[in-house]
């Protein structure tokens, strides 16, 4: 109680207050007030997060217990927050990047009517609140509260322009696919409860609890949690909602669908690292799913023409790399990539937003080109973001991706080869995007050309800050080969993964890569990325619109490997037919038919017997006499047999 | 005064009953309405007061017995225990909510309408308080018969067909239960009254709990009770009366049916079925859980293809009740606690849903989802409140239903992993039908029917806001409700050891 970190409840409460103010008074707030309230609460949260981070850095971690959500003899679930290295790092990312995106939004959403403007900020604040719960929770239930909360906000924001049915379809798809994952998450929690009767991290990861879990238990639990992660973090097979989610306003894509929410799955696995390290089967599944997603999404990104769609597939692909990292045990590397990715991907999305803004809502890159001269700041920052994601040293993406790839090589050189192929594709499609958008000649309409302009400061300021972070952010994790003790991030996070690392080193003989190998790996991947990059620039700076329809593989890629169509045919349609069958055949003809049949039989019987009730006393007497005679005869004969 | 002259259970039953009788004699339109509203608020106050006297030491406030039919061993024994207190509270909250939400509705012959409504409330209170099998049966019927009249007189176009089905189902159930009660009665120990009268058997609940039924007897008498309760809940395949009844009854009756009356079935299982037939319960738990789980998935699927808004809510409710039934038969501390929590929450949420559906139907004149659209532009407040209630209905965290459903699923998982996993699919299906409904009714462009609608009036806003506040309070801090019903879980599980 006396711990200063006990006040961390303020960090999520502030955005909640912002949500309530903007939500309840949306009709009366002016745009500037709504925008100010929305951004100010996040800034305050950010300040508190810095405070929490510094406390943690000086060695003060805290488990804050506020009240009990459920308290019965068989189960106690507290409303607890855990502030340690991992959560404090995520706090910084969420509130820091979140604040920049709020500022950006004040300008980007300015054309909305003030009621909708306030609503937008309310949703955005609610999202930050949920996301903070997710990472601050001291047990899986608080995490789950945030987990579904961010899903809800994502749904609300994707469908923000709810007149358009395509947008609301995309929103619905996101929510439902997330819920499929959520079921996995919940089942994992039930499994934990039935085996060890608790969901709090500290208790679950304690040696006594872990001893109660068999290998099957751990494998099952981790796999089910991973199902949850595939939903939230858009991995195979549940990734298809993320590209569609681009229907939402662009800052939303930057915040939710690039920097924060989609990394929840990585956070969750990093949090449960000890469980995952104890389940090699799961680790293998995570690595393979991650790598496959990374490649699949990268191939699709090669042929997309919508600027946001390219970035969306790129996000899916980068998330795949993070899972690859988790799968091969590079937890720090995965978290590192979450951080650098938050910088450069938020930057790229916001940059794309700035472009879309200037183009008057146009998102098709075939109609862009030559924007370099018109939008200097956007262009420069975007270019820096592209270099960072392509993994060119010394930009941030290089360090984090390299760490993951090196760990993948240790696990299996095959992983590394495929991973590098993906990295090449990344460099290619990013510079294809860059070339088509900023280089060459403008291909849009005259009206658009006339309208081209650099965005206002509220938009360029976040771009500049994020560009600085995207360029220099990698220096917190310089690998051993360059500078001894250069990996400050690993040092900082060490206590979180101490238990896991101790477990791993006691179970597997571990040999670090030699420095030479590491240099060769690094050099190869950078070289290949450079080749891909320059080829892309060369090709797409001269891009011309063509009308010919693509064929073969190109067509398949343009159609995203027809995965949506496949899901539609295999899941959506059969579900509808089954439901219709239940409704029309079993319910109406079967059960109801039976019940009505009984009713009809009774009715029919009643009608047939009506003649007996003729109402004439004489007839009744006659019947009575007959009846008595029958009884008499029966009795007489029965007795005599 | 309390304890000497009267007790809580008596008050909870008598106030609505007397008010109901008075209503029949009030001719003027608004008089009956106002008397009913006033009586229901008084009942609510009594119920809230009873919460403060829940402790063991206030036993004399909470239980009372009168000589009734002592030669056959029945006394008029009513009492409030933990489960009863929770459900009488739900009943007491439900009725004023319903009366206020439908205050603007005008009924032909409103005196009889409100009289019958209040008699239903009295019957429900009686069911939840009865501690004597005969009294229980009496109130069970008292709760049902007014509903039958209400639906058949004030219902929709196809009301006769719907109420006929409702009547056949429930009447069959009641009859089976009566046979069951008599059979168990014949196996109860005898009883000696204070004045020396003796009876060979007894109807008191304790005597029923002590009835010595052979396992082979339990095996079939169990089903007599179970079918009666299963019809009332209802669970698959005894459910087909429900969508029609919900669709055709006047909305306020539908709210009573779905919010409160379905709990009679669950309550019957908890209070009577399981303690009387412990062996059969264990024996058939698997079978019933399988039935319930089939019902959960089946009803959720049907909800997906429903175009009728009312039937969609009905099928969604069947799915939720199915989960509660499965959780009861899982018979562990977590699942039963979850059920007790969820019985209350489900009642609040579904009443909220009906209020919104009623509003939509009144404003547009239709209940077909495909004819609606774009309501969010015209009625933003209604939309927001509905979205919150609908999300609570699909158990989003921090809403009331989450805690209950979470505990129920966790409990079912402890009983059998696969049951929980399969039942869990319903949380995905629930998202599908709920979001489909929200999208088609509220989003998109407006349609001719929704072109000129207005947002809801103040009293409807207030009522829905009250429900929304309840949803969040119970979702963020459910512990008071858990504490209220904790004891019941212990009692049930010890009886059934």
Helical amount of chain A: over 70%
* Content-based structural category of chain B: mainly alpha
Largest sheet of chain B: 2 strands, antiparallel
Q: Please state roughly what percent of the residues of chain B sit in beta strands, choosing from under 5%, 5-15%, 15-25%, 25-35%, 35-45% or over 45%.
A: under 5%
Low-confidence stretches of chain A: none
**End-to-end distance of chain B:** 39 Å
How do the SSEs of chain B run, as a string of H and E?
A: HHHEEHHHHEEHHHHHHHHHHHHH
Structural class computed from helices and strand pairing of chain A: mainly alpha
Give the CA-CA distance, first to last residue of chain A: 93 Å
Count up the helices of chain A.
26
Radius of gyration of chain B using CA atoms only: 22 Å
Strand order of the largest sheet of chain B: 1-2
In oligomeric terms, what are we looking at? heterodimer
Helix content of chain B: over 70%
Q: Kindly report the greatest chain-chain contact and the residue count on each side.
A: A-B, 53 and 54 residues
The dominant shape of chain A is globular
Biggest sheet overview of chain A: 2 strands, antiparallel
Number of E-state strands of chain A: 2
| Radius of gyration of CA atoms of chain A, rounded to a whole number | 31 Å
Average pLDDT over all residues of chain B: 89
What can you tell me about this protein's structure?
The complex is a heterodimer of chains A (641) and B (497). With 641 residues, chain A is mostly helical. Among the domains of chain A are: 330-558, no CATH class; 566-638. Chain A has 26 helices and two strands. Chain A has helices at 10-24, 31-57, 85-108, 114-136, 140-158, 165-196, 201-204, 207-212, 215-232, 241-244, 250-259, 264-271, 273-277, 280-302, 307-327, 331-358, 376-390, 396-411, 413-438, 446-451, 457-472, 488-507, 515-540, 552-558, 563-608, 617-640, and strands spanning 62-72, 75-83. In chain A, strands 1-2 form a two-stranded antiparallel ribbon. In chain A, helix 1 packs antiparallel against helix 2 (31-57). The model of chain B has no long low-confidence stretch (mean pLDDT 89). Chain B is mainly alpha-helical and 497 residues long. Chain B has a domain at 286-497.
């Amino acid at each position: 109680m006396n711990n200063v970190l006990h006040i961390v409840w303020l960090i999520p409460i502030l955005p909640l207050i912002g949500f309530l103010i903007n939500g309840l008074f949306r009709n009366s707030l002016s745009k500037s007030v709504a925008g100010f309230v929305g951004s100010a609460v996040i800034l305050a949260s950010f300040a508190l997060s810095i405070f929490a981070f510094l406390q943690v850095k000086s060695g003060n971690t805290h488990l804050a217990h506020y009240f009990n959500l459920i308290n019965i003899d068989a189960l106690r679930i507290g409303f607890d927050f855990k502030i340690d290295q991992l959560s404090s790092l995520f706090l910084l990312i969420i509130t820091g990047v979140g604040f920049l995106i709020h500022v950006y939004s004040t300008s980007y959403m300015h054309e909305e009517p003030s009621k909708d403007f306030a609503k937008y900020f309310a949703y955005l604040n609610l999202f930050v609140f949920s996301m903070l719960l997710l990472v601050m929770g001291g047990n899986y239930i608080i995490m789950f509260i945030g987990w579904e909360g961010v899903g809800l906000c994502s749904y609300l924001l994707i469908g923000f322009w709810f007149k358009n049915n395509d947008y609301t379809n995309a929103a619905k798809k996101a929510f439902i696919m997330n819920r499929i994952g959520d079921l996995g998450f919940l089942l994992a929690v039930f499994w934990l409860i039935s085996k060890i009767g608790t969901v709090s991290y500290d208790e679950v990861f304690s040696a006594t609890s872990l001893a109660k879990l068999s290998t099957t238990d751990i494998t099952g639990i981790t796999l089910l949690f991973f199902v949850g992660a595939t939903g939230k973090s858009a991995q195979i097979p549940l990734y298809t909602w993320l590209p569609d989610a681009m229907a939402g306003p662009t800052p939303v894509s930057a915040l939710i669908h690039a920097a924060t929410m989609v990394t929840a799955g990585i956070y969750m696995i990093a949090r449960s690292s000890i469980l995952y390290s104890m389940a090699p089967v799961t680790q293998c599944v995570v690595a393979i799913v991650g790598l496959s997603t990374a490649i699949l999404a990268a191939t699709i990104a090669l042929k997309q023409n919508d600027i946001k769609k390219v970035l969306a597939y790129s996000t899916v692909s980068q998330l795949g790399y993070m899972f690859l990292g988790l799968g091969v045990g590079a937890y720090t590397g995965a978290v590192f990539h979450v951080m650098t990715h938050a910088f450069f991907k938020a930057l790229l999305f916001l940059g794309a937003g700035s472009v879309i803004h200037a183009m008057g809502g146009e998102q098709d890159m075939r109609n862009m080109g030559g924007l370099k001269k018109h939008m200097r700041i956007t262009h420069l920052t975007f270019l820096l973001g592209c270099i960072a994601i392509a993994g060119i040293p010394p930009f941030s993406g290089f360090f984090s991706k390299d760490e993951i790839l090196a760990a993948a090589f240790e696990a299996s050189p095959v992983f590394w080869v495929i991973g590098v192929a993906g990295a090449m594709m990344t460099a290619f499609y990013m510079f294809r995007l860059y070339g088509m958008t900023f280089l060459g000649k403008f291909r849009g309409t005259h009206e658009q050309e006339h309208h081209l302009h650099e965005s206002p400061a509220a938009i360029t300021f976040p771009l500049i800050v994020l560009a600085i972070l995207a360029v220099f952010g990698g220096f917190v994790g310089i690998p051993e080969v360059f500078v001894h003790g250069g990996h400050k991030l690993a040092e900082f996070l060490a206590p979180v993964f101490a238990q896991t690392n101790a477990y791993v080193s006691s179970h597997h003989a571990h040999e670090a890569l030699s420095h030479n190998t590491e240099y060769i790996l690094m050099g190869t991947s950078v070289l290949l990325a450079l080749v891909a990059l320059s080829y892309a620039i060369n090709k797409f700076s001269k891009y011309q619109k063509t009308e010919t329809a693509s064929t073969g593989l190109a067509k398949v890629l343009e159609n995203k490997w027809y995965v949506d169509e496949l899901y539609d045919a295999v899941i959506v349609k059969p579900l509808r037919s089954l439901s219709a069958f239940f409704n029309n055949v079993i319910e109406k003809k079967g059960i109801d038919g039976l019940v009505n049949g009984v009713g009809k039989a009774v009715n029919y019987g009643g009608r047939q017997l009506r003649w007996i009730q003729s109402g004439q006393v004489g007839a009744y007497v006659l019947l009575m006499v007959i009846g008595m005679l029958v009884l008499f005869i029966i009795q007489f004969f029965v007795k005599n047999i | 005064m309390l304890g000497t002259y009267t007790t809580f259970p008596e008050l909870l039953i008598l106030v609505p009953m007397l008010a109901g009788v008075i209503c029949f004699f009030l001719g003027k339109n608004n008089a009956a309405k106002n008397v009913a509203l006033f009586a229901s608020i008084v009942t609510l106050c009594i119920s809230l007061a009873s919460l403060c006297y829940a402790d063991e030491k206030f036993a004399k406030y909470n239980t009372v017995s009168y000589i009734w039919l002592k030669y056959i061993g029945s006394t008029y024994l009513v009492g409030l225990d933990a489960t009863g207190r929770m459900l009488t509270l739900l009943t007491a909250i439900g009725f004023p909510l319903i009366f206020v939400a439908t205050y603007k509705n005008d009924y032909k012959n409103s005196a009889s309408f409100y009289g019958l409504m209040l008699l239903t409330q009295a019957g429900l209170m009686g069911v939840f308080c009865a501690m004597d099998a005969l009294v229980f049966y009496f109130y069970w019927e008292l709760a049902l018969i007014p509903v039958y009249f209400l639906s058949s007189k004030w219902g929709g176009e196809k009301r006769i067909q719907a109420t006929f089905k409702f009547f056949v189902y429930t009447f069959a159930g009641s009859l089976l239960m009566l046979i069951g009660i008599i059979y168990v009665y014949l196996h109860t120990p005898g009883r000696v009254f204070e004045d020396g009268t003796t009876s060979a058997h007894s109807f008191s609940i304790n005597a029923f709990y002590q009835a010595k039924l052979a396992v082979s007897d339990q095996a079939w008498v169990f089903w007599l009770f179970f079918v009666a309760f299963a019809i009332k809940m209802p669970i698959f395949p005894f459910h087909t009366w429900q969508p029609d009844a919900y669709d055709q009854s006047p909305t306020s009756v539908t709210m009573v049916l779905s919010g409160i009356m379905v709990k009679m079935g669950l309550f019957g299982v908890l209070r009577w079925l399981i303690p009387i037939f412990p062996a059969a319960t264990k024996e058939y738990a698997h079978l019933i859980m399988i039935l319930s789980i089939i019902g959960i998935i089946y009803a959720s699927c049907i909800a997906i293809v429903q175009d009728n808004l009312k039937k969609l809510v009905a099928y969604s409710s069947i799915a939720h009740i199915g989960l509660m039934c499965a959780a009861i038969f899982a018979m562990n501390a977590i699942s039963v606690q979850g059920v007790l929590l969820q019985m209350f929450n489900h009642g609040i949420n579904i009443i909220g849903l009906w209020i919104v559906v009623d509003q939509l139907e009144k404003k547009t004149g239709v209940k077909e989802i495909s004819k609606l659209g774009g309501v969010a532009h015209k009625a933003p407040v209604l939309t927001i409140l509905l979205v919150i209630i609908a999300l609570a209905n699909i158990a989003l965290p921090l809403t009331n239903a989450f805690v209950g459903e979470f505990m129920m699923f966790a409990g079912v998982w402890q009983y059998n992993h696969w049951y929980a996993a399969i039942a869990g699919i319903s949380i995905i299906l629930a998202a599908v039908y709920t979001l489909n409904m929200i999208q088609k009714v509220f989003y998109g462009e407006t349609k001719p029917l929704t072109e000129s609608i207005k947002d809801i009036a103040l009293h409807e806003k207030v009522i829905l806001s009250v429900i929304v506040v309840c949803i969040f309070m119970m979702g963020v801090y459910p512990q008071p409700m858990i504490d209220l019903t904790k004891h019941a879980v212990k009692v049930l599980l010890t009886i059934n050891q």
